């Protein structure tokens, strides 16, 4: 029964992770490039390399933050309930 509680908790943790990842990427991009915003794929003022590097960096940051927040949520759930959320 407790594992039913994990799904809404995981949704909240995932949403928070997405927000944190967006903030982290924006700050890292600003420090590395000196630009306020990363180039979009359709922005003609940037080269292919700039667009692809920005997308790869964004993907890596989002992936790492997502993994970290999901792991933290699972560990917190285990500490609170004694169960790992994905075990049957």
From TrEMBL:
InterPro entries cross-referenced by the UniProt entry: DUF4235 (IPR025329)
Record-given protein name: Integral membrane protein
Species: Amycolatopsis azurea DSM 43854
